[in-house]
Specification:
It is a single chain. The protein is an alpha/beta fold. The protein contains 13 helices and 20 strands. It has helices at about 40-50, 90-100, 120-135, 165-185, 190-205, 215-220, 225-230, 285-300, 345-360, 370-380, 390-400, 435-450, 480-490; strands at about 1-5, 15-20, 60-65, 75-80, 110-115, 155, 210-215, 240-245, 255-260, 260-265, 305-315, 325-330, 335-340, 365-370, 385, 405-410, 425-430, 455, 465, 475. The strands form 4 sheets. Strands 7, 8, 9, 10, 11, 14, 15, 16 and 18 form a 9-stranded mixed sheet that branches. Helix 8 links the parallel strand 10 and strand 11. Helix 4 packs antiparallel against helix 8 and helix 9 (about 345-360) packs parallel to helix 12. The longest helix has 22 residues, at about 165-185. The chain starts with a strand and ends with a helix. The structure holds ligand BES and zinc ion (ZN) (2 copies). Ligand BES binds near residues 283, 344 and 459.
Length: about 500
């Protein structure tokens, strides 16, 4: 899909659908068109408003076929909801909903006109993202349902923003769709080695350094926690390292993005119930988001040095699998009693976090589909955020808020540490029954140590359980935009 900012006068613009956004009535005003579109459809809209057929509610839409007033084949008026609630996050959804409703009608060219007061760079970037994200469907393996409708061009019209605003949105959303594509791959098609090759290929294409540590190297280093998880599978584990080095780097800080890459999580010997196990192919969503974020960062070129670290393993109950009660020695030197082999994400992340510190990262953010408990706590709405450094955690919180990948901060007090006491090793890999998302985070904190670190539990948010008007069912690609924003706004 080609993306443009179209500066042609609206009446002259050649497109299949010219989408005009309109706020809901409020503060004494009726739903009204963007100023420049008034001559095109103002009278028509006024009639619809008068009869109550159109109220401007979010995603409400009416279509004018063969408008005599414009070159466009159709004019679509779409509600943007209440004006005071409209921000770039709403614009992203609006553009997405427009694309997802118009694409099945066979429109090949779509032009979106944002409300007059909301056409600046931030809004344009978000609208472009919304359209590209909405264009993605996880149907790669449906041979008979292949999409026949293709949108060839999406443009933002009547906006004052520079081309760069659209370009930024394109880079980020294409990276997020790349992440979604990886997360959507089933366990038989994307193994740890497949994830490593995908990262290498991406790195070669976008000029990043990529280093892949194999089992032998990890054994030499002493990554016992990661290797213990991997040993039940015939698929060899890999630790993927992606490096972005800016030309003119900010001195003194180095951001490490760490992502859980369990390409399939059966639970291991502590095997999961069969019902719902098929979903565990998205247990590498954090890792996929890190690979995608580096893809965008390589093009957006922030001034902070960024390293992506993705431990990629498959958690299987093979003959060589680790058993409950096994004690492993992590890269940090700490010993871990593996009381439940299904709590594997924290084990591989423990070694990845330690390794990230060895690579010189001064700030760490990890993303992981870590616990079912975070879904119990926050459902599918917010990412669970935990931090050992409030100032840094707040920056991540803000990046997520700005990007519509909202996080909710959870506690991480010292008091929780006792739940992880082990009688035989330095720490156990599970706590008791309660507060499962917190005890998982407390476990990771032990390995982050003194380094400012923020953990994002995306188990409830990495997968869209049901299609939204603006986004297909399936992988969401979170928290890729938050990662990019954090890097771009780095100080
Ligand atoms: N990958 C799962 C967490 C998960 C659950 C992700 C549901 C997405 C949806 C993780 O490895 C896991 O199995 N966690 C266990 C931890 C428990 C054994 C302490 C869990 O949440 O049940
Ligand atoms: Zn598990
Ligand atoms: Zn898992």
């Amino acid at each position: 899909m080609e993306i443009t900012i179209d500066r042609t006068p609206l009446a002259e613009l050649e497109t299949d659908a010219l989408v005009l956004t309109v706020f809901e009535a409020g503060n004494g005003h009726l739903p009204a068109l963007p100023e420049a579109a008034q001559p095109l459809a103002g009278a028509w809209l006024a009639g619809l408003v008068e009869t109550g057929e159109f109220k401007g509610k979010t995603f409400d839409s009416v279509t004018l076929h063969q408008p005599g007033t414009a070159r466009a084949r159709r004019i679509v008026v779409m509600g943007a909801g209440k004006q005071d609630r409209f921000n770039p996050n709403a614009a992203r959804k609006l553009a997405g909903a427009a694309l997802r409703s118009l694409k099945p009608r066979g429109y090949k060219r779509i032009a979106l006109v944002l409300p007059d007061t909301c056409a600046g760079a931030g809004f344009v970037t978000a609208a472009v993202e919304g359209a590209i994200l909405a264009d993605y469907n996880p149907d790669a393996y449906q041979t008979d349902k292949k999409e026949v409708q293709v949108v060839e061009r999406f443009s933002v019209a009547g906006a004052s923003a520079p081309d760069e605003a659209a370009e930024t949105g394109r880079i980020i959303a294409e990276a997020q769709n790349f992440t979604r594509g990886l997360a959507n791959e089933p366990g038989n098609r994307l193994t740890p080695s497949g994830m490593a090759s995908a990262a290498q290929k991406m790195a070669a294409e976008f000029g990043l350094e990529c280093e892949v540590l194999d089992r032998g190297l990890m054994q030499d280093l002493g990554m016992g926690a990661l290797l213990g998880v991997a040993q039940g599978s015939d698929e060899p584990p890999f630790l993927i390292v992606l490096r972005y080095r800016p030309r003119n780097p900010l001195e003194g800080t180095h951001l490490g993005l760490v992502g859980k890459g369990v390409t399939f999580d059966t639970g291991g010997i502590s095997i999961k119930p069969s019902e719902g196990m098929e979903k565990m192919r998205y247990d590498m969503s954090g890792g996929a988001a890190v690979i995608g974020a580096l893809r965008a960062i390589a093009q957006l070129k922030p001034r902070v040095t960024v390293t992506g670290i993705i431990p990629a393993v498959e958690n299987m109950p093979g003959a060589r699998a680790q058993r409950p009660g096994d004690i492993v020695t992590s890269l940090s030197g700490k010993t871990i009693e593996v009381l439940n082999t299904d709590a594997e994400g924290r084990l591989i992340l423990a070694d990845a976090l330690t390794y990230a510190k060895r690579l010189g990262c001064t700030h760490l953010v990890d993303a992981a589909t870590l616990t079912g408990a975070i879904v119990v706590a926050l459902a599918h709405i917010h990412i669970g955020l935990f931090t050992n450094h409030q100032e840094f955690g707040s920056r991540v919180l803000e990046a997520g808020r700005a990007e519509g990948e909202t996080c909710w901060q959870m506690p991480l007090d010292e008091e929780y540490r006792e739940y992880l006491e082990s009688s035989f090793a330095d720490i156990a890999n599970i706590g008791g029954r309660w507060g499962g998302a917190i005890t998982a985070a407390v476990f990771l904190k032990e390995f982050a140590g003194e380094t400012p670190w923020t953990h994002l539990d995306i188990a409830g948010t990495a997968w869209n359980e049901e299609a939204d008007p603006w986004l297909a069912k399936g992988p969401t690609g979170v928290p890729l935009r938050a990662f990019c924003r954090l890097a771009l706004d780095w100080k």
